Hints:
This protein is an alpha+beta fold. It has three helices and five strands.
Amino acid sequence: MATDIKAHARRIPISAQKVRLVIDLVRGKDVQNALDVLKFTPNRAAKPVAKLLNSAIANAENNMGIPRNELYVHQIMADEAPTRKWRRFGARGRFKPWLRRSSHITVVLREREGAQVG
């Protein structure tokens, strides 16, 4: 049975739509390949996603005793977090809202099935 290794990042100040563009690049890849892809991705969301992935790898190594070369990104998702509503005043007494969106990111790592060495 495969064990899930999870890590969560809450209230990342980048919209979920922009984070999804980055996480689609690493879904299903080995963790080392995913970190290499994120290292050279110019999007601003790549840094918190890489930090979260490193946290999940550390959880697997320290808590479960699974080496990083046997792990892959099983699931990764970005959900909407609370939106901060700021206001900007426009001409003629109008009100122009700014929506500062944020996101929750969750990553689930699994061990490769054929990686069992006895």
